Fold this sequence. Notes:
By secondary structure, the chain is mainly β. It is built from 7 helices and 52 strands.
Amino acid sequence: MAIPGNLLSATAEMVDPNTSGWAAKLNCSLSLASGGRNGDGCLKLTSAAAGEMQARSFSSAPVDAGSLYFTFADASASAQPERIGIRWLDAAGAELSVTWSLTTSAASASWHRVSVAGVAPVGTTRAQVLLSSTVAGAGAVHYWENVYLGLPLRIPGNTLSFNAESGGELDTSAWEAESNCTVSRSVPVSSWAYNFYYAGGHIITLTAAGAGDASAVCVERPPVVEGQEYLALTYLGPPTTGSSVWVELRFYDATDTQVAAHRATLAPPGTGIYRQVTSGVAPAGAVTAGLAVGMTGASAGQVARVEGSYLAVPDAAPNPSLRSGNVLPISDWDFEQGVGAWTVASGVATIARSSPWGAEHFFDFYSLTATSSTATVSVLRSGIYPGVVEGENWRAETYFKVSAGGWQIAIAIRWYDETDTYLSTSTPITFDAPASGWWNLYDDAVAPAGATQAQIEITVTATAASSVMRFDRPALWQTLPRESVEANDEQAMVQLILRELTPGQLMTVWRVTADGARMLVRGPDGLYDAYSIPADSLVIEDYEAPLGVPIYYSVLTINGDGTGSEYRTTDTVTLDPGDPNYVWLTDPARPGVGLRVLVKQAPEWKAAIEQTVYRVRQRSTPIVLADVRQSREGDLVCWTETDQQRDALRFLLSTGNVLLWRSAPGMGETDVYAAVGEVQWPRIVTYAREEWREWTLPMTEVDMPTGGQVGSATWTVYDVVLEYATGYDVLAHYETVFDLAIDRRS
């Protein structure tokens, strides 16, 4: 599996099928070993003598001086720890310097992550990765695989800098001690999934200076909007299983005075490193936010570890836990912080967050736990949430699981007006809860007249003493069509919206025409063919739909193990082609820069063929040996009518990418994917100020490209502010505004 954005070759990254991506640099020989995870192969270094041994990437990758680069690898060695470095080279290939990671704190035969980040020094033009360990003698071995070199890999949408997010891959400057601790960084043995690219080897460490509470804060203060909910998380490593370590989301006013804080305490199952989530709504007066981490009741010298810190709005990154449109805040449906606003309205049941981390959950790592000491009825209620629209259909749902005893369960919606006056409750239906496994329960109801707020009510009846039930991701949202389509004639695009999807399932999306022909639809990651669903709703923009032809979409979803398949079919929709003398030219990889142009002359197609003619004596007909006939070739002649259109068409053609030509029915032409050769665009008359240009586009029909659409919805203006100090730095990395918009660096 190729690591996105890797400047190393696939062979160097995966060490498959051989070691040609690597070269011995010091005191070692290289060989191919098995047992890797990113492909079976891995790099085996064998020492020639005692001392440091090093290997380097065989080739060097082009880099820009002054830019930040990141490298990581997974390593395994039972006898010695290791470090990794970026070797900076000048134009002549001479070494300028090396940015080294800290050395791993211990040796480990399990695969573990080592990494470092650094800014390319002045004069750097290329870089290599260095792998290093110091051995006690000849014959010592060290294994490496899954190696990356490139720009920093970020959690999508994160408003914190890479250094703050990554646990100090550069240094400790993003964090400072707040009370009773010192802040440093270390490289413990940290095992991560080979395809989890947002974690490295360095980790920020808090060391308690004395007995008592200890805390540290991130020095960065990203801006926030009053009334907006924010999600924060970090990976925490407690010093002991019984330690109380926490993460806190803080809000600050214009004077940098703290105005609110939301803390979530980890319930550790061990002394590993665990993701802990917190969240909160920015209160009145809040202009920035920040993160704090700490230990409650620490002993002197105890160490807590911090990695992978994140702060953003909840939907900044794909999150399988999110139910689109849910009016409940995160604290009331995720239970990572506690029970939120949930209460026991009646009955003997008690509620609490599950413990420890990871023991009971359907989403993320905690759930709401209800315990009934007797076989009686209890009623649980959420907070009361605004956003309800009267007369519309709303759905309340929850995931639940019986952990002990037996239960009956029902769910309903309680309606309130804008003065918090109770109006009515939907009619619940009671079910016998299955004895094992996680299940989903939901109920639909129409909001009555005057309703502006609502809450979820769950009625549970324990059928035995000491019964325990878990709940996860309760949600309340306005139900909308599960699938909808809309034609956008101005952009020659059809928008397909899919709702109530199951994250983790595989999805395939086809565009279907009236004759039954099916074509796969394109998305940001390529064609939607066995695509892993990231969230419960998805918006697909199809810029390759034919003009003037009725189409609909067919969607197949299926579980990863091949079970539970479901088909969805949308309504039929037709894109209006407008004036039939115009056609659309679209770059499937950059659909936002498509262009509508006036046609002077459609191609006079020809299709070449390689053939040899043998004329046999005394025979009137020859013998012809031929290859298959080639695809169509011809010239599309079109006009641009303004200077803006001319520049837009030049920009569209500038990459040399395959284009899609779409025309209205009646032109006698099917839609064609084509490579465009050398182009000409003279004025239609010799007058110098004439704006009209006549373009001749030599087109060769090719197969439909399979790549994804370029661009990123998570690349924001704030990301630019974090990464670049001045506008001149931005100009040095992006040739055009479009390159900046899609984060394509030159």
